[in-house]
Amino acid sequence: MEIIPCNTCGSSEFKPLFSKSNHKNELFHIVQCIRCSLVQVSPQPSPKEVASYYSEEYFLKRSDRGYDNYFSEGIRNEISRVFGLNLKDLDFQTWEKSLSTTKRCLDVGCAAGYFVDYMQSRGWDSYGMDIAQAPVKFARDKLKLKVEQVDFLEWKPTNVDQFDLITLWASIEHLHKPKETLEKFIHI
């Protein structure tokens, strides 16, 4: 855990908003930057520490901080249904039709790859990445998806890693360095 300056403006002046304990009884403070109003956790766990919070148990054991078998077909179907509703609200299909026949998608923080799977069902060449081992293993082994266990900021894209769509479904708020992540998107 480390106290870090604001990821947006670099200020070290924050006002406390509230505090919350996690499942390991570690206390986290939610603070707001005095200068730019960004809200962040302080102190922040490292990406490696964050990955440890998302053990297989988190995805399988019902709790106030986890799922009741996130890997079940019922949960997968419900999440896919919600993706469909969200894309419909965004009039995604109109934009999607304007793209070439080869459409590529990257989902950062993809967990078990349900959005990767959803986009493949729409004809997209889809990829995902997540820092948590259990959902990545499920995505690869059970769903046969192209998903990597890697922190996005440590990922080394190649010349062929160009995407029409990059998503962060329920992930941006978990990023250690959101500004750097968004800046890296520009280059892929």
Automatic annotation (TrEMBL):
Coiled coil: none
Domain of life of the organism encoding this protein: Bacteria
One Pfam assignment: Methyltransf_23
Membrane-traversing stretches: none
Record InterPro entries: SAM-dependent_MTases_sf (IPR029063)
Signal sequence region: none
PANTHER family in the cross-refs: METHYLTRANSFERASE TYPE 11, TRANS-ACONITATE 2-METHYLTRANSFERASE-RELATED
Descriptive protein name: Methionine biosynthesis protein MetW-like protein
Species of the source: Leptospira interrogans serovar Lora str. TE 1992
